[in-house]
Each structure stands twice: as C-alpha cells, then as structure tokens.
C-alpha cells in the first residue's frame, strides 16, 4: 500500500502523476474546443472582440461543464465502491459460511490446496477488513482509487482554462482596435495552439505509456482537423447569412 501511495505521488513536471490524466484530457479538450471557436470566428470574418468574447465564454462554460462531469463520474465510482463494500460487510455478518466458501473457491482457483488452502482461508477470514478487501478485489474486481472528486474536477477545470486560453493569447494583445479582423493573429494562434497541443500530446503519451512522437502527431492532427471543420463551417455560414 505504501509503495502504491508513493507511486501515485510521483510528479511529472509539477503535477501529481495520479492527476496527470485529468490535466491532459482537460487540456486537450480546452485547446481544441477554444481553437475551433477561434477558427470558426475567423472563417466567418468576425472581429477580434467577437473572437475574444466567444473564446472566453467557451472557456468558462465548457471548462465548468467538463469539470462537473468529471466530478460526478469520480463520485459515482467512489459511491458504487462504498455501496458494494457495505454489502460485503453485511454478507460476512449474515452469510458467513457462504462467504468463507467463496474465499476458499477463490484461492483454490489460484492453485492453493489442502492444508495450505485452509490456512489462507483462516488468515483472511480472521480479519474482517482484510476479508472485505479481498472480496472487493478478487470477487468484484473493484479497487478504491485515491483520486477525490474535487481534485479531479479541479485538475480538469484548471487545465481546461490554462491550455484552452492559449489560442486566445494573440488576440489578447491585438491592440486598441478590436473591431477589425487581423489574419496574422490567427496565424499566431495556430502556432501557439500547435505548440500547446504538442506539449499536452507528449504528456498524454507518458500517461498512456505510448510513443511520444505518435502522441504529439495524433493530438495536433485532431486539433487541426477540428479547426479546419470549424473554419469551413464559419466561412460557409458567413456566405449564407452575412
């Protein structure tokens, strides 16, 4: 247990490793959706101020929505674990012989036999906590994670805001006249977003233990595809309605 806790507290850059997955997927979603908004606004030839307003609105709304979804997902997993754990306690108290036989069957299937099998059964069933933990892991294949709903939601929201704001950086420093369209700003946004997606893509590869180059290419290509579709739709809608 101590080894697992130490492993979960390892850090990549300045993030706890156990929450890197939330940071990565929050960051990818934030960068791609915000960049898609920027590309769509550019395709529709909207002014700088509109790009900033739409981008910030997307950051806050989608970031909050994603973090809330992550919160309830993590909470549901923990609640389900606790519910099944309480059921196992009840079964040990009220159906003891059946539960003892289940432990015996579990370890017999692992190759334990005779006196050794009975010793294992006696040791496990002598401690209610160990007994329940064994049933949760071996029978139900459920293990309680160390992640908390609040921390997973927080990591998702922070990464969504931080990485998702990158496509907007060039527009924040556009100058005084925010009503015009400046194609050069979109170019800068593309470059910055590509760099951000490459960094997050490399982190994704570390989390998934995959090839870093492939992770970078996959993430940036998906981001580029999303931006292309948004730009095309924006351009089409401008020609139809404006």
Automatic annotation (TrEMBL):
Recorded topology in the membrane: Multi-pass membrane protein
GO cellular component, one term: endomembrane system
InterPro entries reported in the protein's UniProt record: Ccc1_fam
Transmembrane in keyword set: yes
Keyword Aminoacyl-tRNA synthetase on entry: no
GO MF annotations in UniProt: manganese ion transmembrane transporter activity
Record-level GO BP terms: intracellular manganese ion homeostasis
Membrane-spanning segments: 20-41, 47-72, 152-173, 185-203, 212-233
Keywords: Membrane, Transmembrane, Transmembrane helix
Record localization: Endomembrane system
Name of the featured protein: Predicted Fe2+/Mn2+ transporter, VIT1/CCC1 family
Organism (species): Salinimicrobium catena
Organism taxonomic ancestry: Bacteria, Pseudomonadati, Bacteroidota, Flavobacteriia, Flavobacteriales
